[in-house]
Amino acid sequence: MIAGLGNPGPEYEGTRHNVGWWLLDELSAAWGLGRFKRESNAGIASGRVGPVVVRLVKPLTYMNRSGAALGPLRRMNAFDIAQDLLVIVDDVALEPGRARFRPTGSAGGHNGLRSVESVLGTQTYARLRIGVGAKPPAVDLADWVLSSPSKPDREAIRERFPDLVDCLRSWLEQGIEPAMNSCNT
Length: 185
Hints:
Blueprint: E1 2-4, H1 19-30, E2 37-39, E3 42-49, E4 52-59, H2 66-70, H3 81-84, E5 86-91, E6 99-102, H4 111-120, E7 126-131, H5 141-145, H6 151-159, H7 161-174, H8 176-183
Helix pairs in contact: 1-7, 7-8
């Protein structure tokens, strides 16, 4: 399962906070999974990628409550959160288009990850952070992540997506180590 964190609604579509959703849209198109359909409090696109059944998840609970959409995972018997969950988020500490893939870690000040960790009761799940650039000193962090990136920054982010699609396919088929090697270059 790959969850991309973001905020629902047209006013948030192009914002930095929604880069996780941007990448999910790219994955769905590249893998032929079709449109996202609402299931409970998430948009879901699912199908097969090679031999692997995959679900792409867009929580519809707003960023700071993203964990609520992923909470039911704790009750799924065959689902190993540490092995089967990847969460994609924006990261203001990375330059636009840079990516960092890790098998575990802290929320690092990201409220969406904090919500996921609180609900799931663990920090042991894969996460892909996509750089959206540092905020200017005079700008509030919330205002920064809820604004649209400049055209050059947006292009830098989107130019990285084909590599990230390949990286995430590697994660699905081969596991975390090969994916980290290709994502973190």
